[in-house]
């Protein structure tokens, strides 16, 4: 079969890691029976500076109408708010209804502190609706307000996704794939002790969605944890966590925190997943400090390509990529500087391609 | 002089650590010239269950009219929203206009990874205004909204406080007190790449307040960092941070994360500071799992008492407490279970009192 993948490098090191992702897909063994085709697409701050638009309509159209999946690199954020500029990845998530942001964080097999968790982040609402206004009150002066929005529908949907992922991981375990967990557990993150209505609704809806689906999730335990305590426990006992489900903003913060535990953001992939479409996206940003030097870690993008394939039901191709990346990490010889090595993006990529 | 301290143990281990705080204050050497008097005050979930009110009006009145400072323990949060219950500490912060939550996180002198930072958390607004509503729309179903509010006034005020604290720390360094930092730096945390108006306003206001006060802060550098990246860097390079200033919710999450880096929430104090009043409060919660066993770590409360005294201009008394606590930690013989020891609250307290 033929799969057309949209490539949106964005800014900074996005322009170095997305080409690596493309080369990886091209190098997959033909025995898998997949032929990849690619379409280059624009988005980002550079695009905004050139064209006045951060996310061109064509990018959205081509993704919707011509592509089977996509890889997104990273975008720079201006340090001061720029009129008319707004993050294209946040917009893409909403326009394509990619309602789940799935972020697996896993240590290498040899790690002193084993970690194997997935953060399932709601990807369309919370403060990311970006309904903001600025007001000037004669008495209290200038102030701004933003709306945090939590709906039953989006919360149930993300709860379901967390349950499905927990169950899928449990099946892998039962089929003999080694794991640090004995059983499946979904932990819901919230701050319902302060936000009893919004975060309370998130918590109840996730609970409800998982108990409705109990017949498929009967082996999935359900816990909940307040977000501040979660940040603490994530550092203290990360091996405790299997699947973490969180509203958009907590998911954003917690996934960066979790990435720190496995050594580098350069290792952590994500997939923006909807019912129709998936965009793979490394968790790291555009890293202006190292952009253009050819030393960005390509692994987060390679793993994001694998994640994208998983959600396109190409599990075999995904498994090949994961195995090749893990082999590179276990050997720990060719590593980019973020992991303490001296290899270039190109050298790490070639080492991984060799292992496919 | 006579200082009257309100004691609000709250729930759970709050009832074990606040009495320890009282004994500490009573044990301070009389050469300091301070006589402490105490008033016991109620608040918390137990109080709510008894009286129907989580924060009795009398508690607020007595604090306002009779006390010079206070110590607050911790409160339990019901696991499901309970009608009419709302966190008394959040209410107290607003009612007494304790606009800054100051949370120093410091490793012991002998730590492999030295950390010495202070989180200065805005304490009155952001999502903590708790303006929430739940709606039911025929098309989209049930959803809830909460307001995140950021004002210039509150942001400038917290920026000023951060600058004053940074400068105070710098003066201590210059007077020869050993420090892991060479110079003072305030890092502003925000998510202005998504929340350009609210977090943008926070960032700009803090910048403005620090540059207005440039004549007193000329040795204080100013940086800013996006909150997700902050969670990452806090784990990777915690020694980089001196003073961190954050809106309410990010400050809540980041201070628990930072506490994980020094080994236990049981070590981390805070002070809720206003222009007129300070409430010392350990960062840990009511810890129902260990409540009643006499093994809660009293150190977070003892340090909170010291912090309270600092903000009451009783620096000498505060320094005595810090030195006694540090001596206990450096010796590392009598430690509660959270630090891997087997000592009780009582034993740790007595050891520290002995060292005053
Ligand atoms: C760039 C930014 C808008 C984005 C987010 O906050 O979602 C990023 O941090 C991420 O996690 O993908
Ligand atoms: C108990 C809770 C309302 C409180 C908060 O969120 O401020 C606590 O986490 C804290 O940090 O003091």
From TrEMBL, chains A, B:
Q: Which cofactor does it need?
A: Mg(2+)
Q: What is this protein called?
A: homoisocitrate dehydrogenase
A matching Pfam family: Iso_dh
Query: Looking at the UniProt record for this protein, which Gene Ontology cellular component terms does it annotate, in alphabetical order?
Result: mitochondrion
Q: Which GO molecular function terms does the record list? A: homoisocitrate dehydrogenase activity; isocitrate dehydrogenase (NAD+) activity; magnesium ion binding; NAD binding
Question: Which pathway or pathways does this protein act in?
Answer: Amino-acid biosynthesis; L-lysine biosynthesis via AAA pathway; L-alpha-aminoadipate from 2-oxoglutarate: step 4/5
Q: Which domain of life is it from?
A: Eukaryota
Q: Which UniProt keywords apply?
A: Amino-acid biosynthesis, Lysine biosynthesis, Magnesium, Metal-binding, NAD, Oxidoreductase, Phosphoprotein
The UniProt entry's GO biological process terms, in alphabetical order, are: isocitrate metabolic process; lysine biosynthetic process; tricarboxylic acid cycle
Q: Which reaction does it catalyse?
A: (2R,3S)-homoisocitrate + NAD(+) = 2-oxoadipate + CO2 + NADH
Q: What is its EC number?
A: 1.1.1.87
Q: Which residues form the Isopropylmalate dehydrogenase-like domain?
A: 4-352
Q: Which family does it belong to?
A: Belongs to the isocitrate and isopropylmalate dehydrogenases family.
Keyword Phosphoprotein found: yes
The protein's matches in InterPro entries, at most eight in alphabetical order, are given as: IsoCit/isopropylmalate_DH_CS, IsoPropMal-DH-like_dom
- What species was this sequence derived from? Xylaria grammica
């Amino acid at each position: 079969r033929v799969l057309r993948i949209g490539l949106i490098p964005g800014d900074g090191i996005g322009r170095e890691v997305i080409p690596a992702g493309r080369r990886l897909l091209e190098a997959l063994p033909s025995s898998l029976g997949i032929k990849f085709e690619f379409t280059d697409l624009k988005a980002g701050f550079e695009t905004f500076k050139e064209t006045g638009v951060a996310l061109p309509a064509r990018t959205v159209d081509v993704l919707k109408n011509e592509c089977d999946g996509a890889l997104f690199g990273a975008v720079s954020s201006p340090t001061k708010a720029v009129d008319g500029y707004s993050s294209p990845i946040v917009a893409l998530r909403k326009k394509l209804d990619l309602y789940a942001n799935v972020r697996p964080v896993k240590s290498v097999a040899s790690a002193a502190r084993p970690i194997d968790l997935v953060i399932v982040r709601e990807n369309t609402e919370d403060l990311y609706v970006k309904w903001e206004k600025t007001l000037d009150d004669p008495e209290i002066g200038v102030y701004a307000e933003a709306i945090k929005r939590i709906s039953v529908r989006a919360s149930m949907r993300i709860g379901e996704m967390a349950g499905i992922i927990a169950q899928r991981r449990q099946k892998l375990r039962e089929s003999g794939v080694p794991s640090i967990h004995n059983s499946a557990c979904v932990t819901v993150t919230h701050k319902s002790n302060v936000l009893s209505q919004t975060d309370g609704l998130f918590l109840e809806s996730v609970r409800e969605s998982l108990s409705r689906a109990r017949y498929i999730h009967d082996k999935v335990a359900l816990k909940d944890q307040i977000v501040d305590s979660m940040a603490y426990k994530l550092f203290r006992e990360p091996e405790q966590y299997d699947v973490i489900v969180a509203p958009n903003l907590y998911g954003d913060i917690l996934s960066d925190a979790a990435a720190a535990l496995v050594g580098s953001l350069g290792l952590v992939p994500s997939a923006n997943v909807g019912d129709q479409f998936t965009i793979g996206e490394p968790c790291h940003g555009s890293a202006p400090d190292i952009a253009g030097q050819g030393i960005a870690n390509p692994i987060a993008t390679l793993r994001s390509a694998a994640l994208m394939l998983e959600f396109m039901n190409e599990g075999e191709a995904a498994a090949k990529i994961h195995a090749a990346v893990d082999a590179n990490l276990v050997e720990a010889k060719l590593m980019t500087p973020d992991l303490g090595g001296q290899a270039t993006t190109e050298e790490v990529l070639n080492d991984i391609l060799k292992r496919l």
